[in-house]
Design goal:
With about 375 residues, this protein is an alpha/beta fold. The chain has 2 domains: about 290 residues, Rossmann fold, CATH 3.40.50; about 70 residues. The strands form 4 sheets. Strands 8-11-12-5-13-14 form a 6-stranded mixed beta sheet, sandwiched between helices. Strands 4-3-6-7 form a 4-stranded antiparallel beta sheet, with helices on one face. Strand 6 and strand 7 form a beta hairpin. The relative contact order is 0.13.
């Protein structure tokens, strides 16, 4: 990162946005001259290395396969704006969000700076500035909406009184139109519960409890029908208008959403092809020789085209199978529950709510006694 130019409020050069090889860079004023918050990504590059061959092949131990995922990406967005990052699968959209939120430090090689209000962030400052809603909803199906948000608020709002936390939960549910389903179970695919759109709003509400100034969303419309997806995008646009920065990735938005975005960034193979307003996007590609046909979705046209490159034999056998399988019966619930809890703990630990070892200790202390008791009960019945 020392090789990159630092971006500070005192400098007059500003941030340069990469508009591709056929378009000159555009200077952006620094955060000191603008009200509210600002976010700048400066020359972000990310690469991963992988050893070639099997682990036991000594000859291939020194040979590595390198892949450049992000290539000198620079962005700038201010509070009150919503930015959409477009690109085909594998273009680096999610990796760019991970780089913004500071979740790539332990993997690969990351170069560049992420600046908030003109100041480059340190590693310990990312969790205080960003909230990140993942593509999949990591929610516990056995809790209601109010319980989910209340438990999240207890972890996120340290030192808050019970009355303050309750008011905060109710306010967030009202803001996201979840009050009418506050006492309904989250549910899952097996026994129903909330709809996909309502689950997505619960995931957004869990992040809003921390009053984030910058919100990141990884493909928030995945798995939703057209009408629900439009409602989610409209909701995110409203959140941005309330003095927040909203950045989302989306694979193939509908044409009706074109004017909802303040800025659009297009990635292709890890490189930033364009970044600007929707009107500037049309003018930019028209100038590059790719005019969008009338009555066509600009998103579809610029992305999909080449613009971007046993049976038991006797009682003894039955008894053997019965006794041998019973000790594992008490563990089945734990095996079924642990992957869900692990997904929740991964997200919440990255949000800074607690450490992973704390979740593991609580899980062991809570589940292990029940597994032992269940095993003893079933096994004793078999032997008796």
């Amino acid at each position: 990162m020392s090789e990159l130019s630092a971006w500070t409020p005192g400098e007059s050069s500003g941030l340069q946005i990469n508009r591709g090889s056929q378009c000159s860079p555009e200077e952006v004023p620094t955060a000191a001259s603008k009200p509210g918050h600002s976010l700048g990504v400066l020359h972000a590059s990310y690469s991963v290395s992988h050893r070639v061959g099997s682990w036991w092949n000594i000859a291939s131990r020194w040979h590595q396969w390198n892949r450049q995922i992000l290539k000198d990406v620079s962005l700038y967005v201010e509070s009150g704006q919503i930015m959409c990052i477009l690109g085909s699968s594998g273009s680096g959209k999610t990796t760019l969000l991970d780089a913004m939120s500071g979740r790539l430090w332990r993997m690969g090689t990351l170069l560049g700076d992420v600046c908030v209000n003109g100041q480059a962030l340190r590693r310990d400052q990312f969790q205080d500035c960003f909230s990140y809603v993942l593509q999949s909803d990591t929610l516990l199906s056995s809790l209601t909406v109010r319980e989910t948000l209340r438990y999240t608020a207890l972890l996120a709002i340290r030192g808050g009184s019970p009355s303050y936390i309750q008011k905060k939960v109710e306010a967030v549910m009202a803001e996201l139109s979840l009050s009418h389903v506050a006492d309904r179970l989250i549910g899952n695919y097996h026994f129903g519960g909330l709809s996909n759109g309502e689950r997505r709003r619960v995931s957004i509400a869990a992040q809003l409890l921390r009053d984030p100034s910058i919100m990141l969303f990884d493909e928030p419309t995945t798995g939703l029908d057209c009408m629900t997806a439009n409602q989610i995008i409209v909701l995110l646009a409203e959140l941005a208008r309330r003095d927040r920065i909203v950045i989302l990735t989306i694979h193939q938005p509908r044409s009706e959403l074109f004017q909802l975005f303040d800025k659009i960034a297009i990635l292709s193979y890890g490189e930033l092809v364009f970044c600007g307003t929707p009107v500037e996007m049309l003018d930019f590609f028209n100038g590059c020789g790719y005019p969008c046909p009338e009555h066509s979705n600009p998103f579809d046209f610029y992305i999909q085209n080449d613009v971007l490159k046993g049976a038991y034999q006797d009682r003894v056998g039955l008894l053997y199978q019965f006794v041998g399988a019973m000790p594992y019966t008490g563990m089945l619930n734990a095996v079924n529950l642990f992957p869900v809890l692990r997904a929740v703990s991964d997200q919440e630990s990255q949000d800074g709510l607690y450490q992973k070892w704390q979740m593991l200790l609580a899980y062991v202390l809570h589940v292990l006694p029940f597994s032992i008791i269940a095993t003893m009960i079933f096994s004793s019945l078999c032997y008796w």
